[in-house]
Amino acid sequence: MMRELEHLSCEERLRELGLFSLKKRRLRGDMRKNFFPLRVTEHWNRLPREAVESPSLEILKTHMDKVLCSLL
């Protein structure tokens, strides 16, 4: 582990490294690949219209990453 991150909490380390928590990564995967209704429906309904109507998977990923930064 990097010495300068030792004193930070897990959430702070992930934020410093620009990574999502396991919970957010699982949610992101569920929304695109598996689409588990029980875990995803509430979050999917919160997505902005431009994310839901994305013309490509890459654009959808970009929108979802922005939304996930503020979710959970």
Description:
With 72 residues, this protein is an all-alpha fold. The protein has one domain (20-70). 68% of the residues lie in helices and 0% in strands. The chain has five helices and no strands. It has helices at residues 10-17, 22-34, 37-46, 49-52, 57-70. The two termini are 26 Å apart.
Order of helices and strands: HHHHH
Strand content: under 5%
| Regions with little confidence, pLDDT below 50 for 5+ residues | none
Mean of residue pLDDT values:
79
| DSSP, total strands | 0
First-last Cα distance = 26 Å
How many distinct folded domains? 1
Name the shape in a single word: elongated
Query: What portion of residues is helical?
Result: 55-70%
| Count of discrete alpha- or pi-helical segments spanning 4 or more residues | 5
The helix-and-strand class reads mainly alpha
Largest sheet: none
Radius of gyration: 14 Å
Name some characteristics of this structure.
single chain; 72 residues; mainly alpha; 5 helices
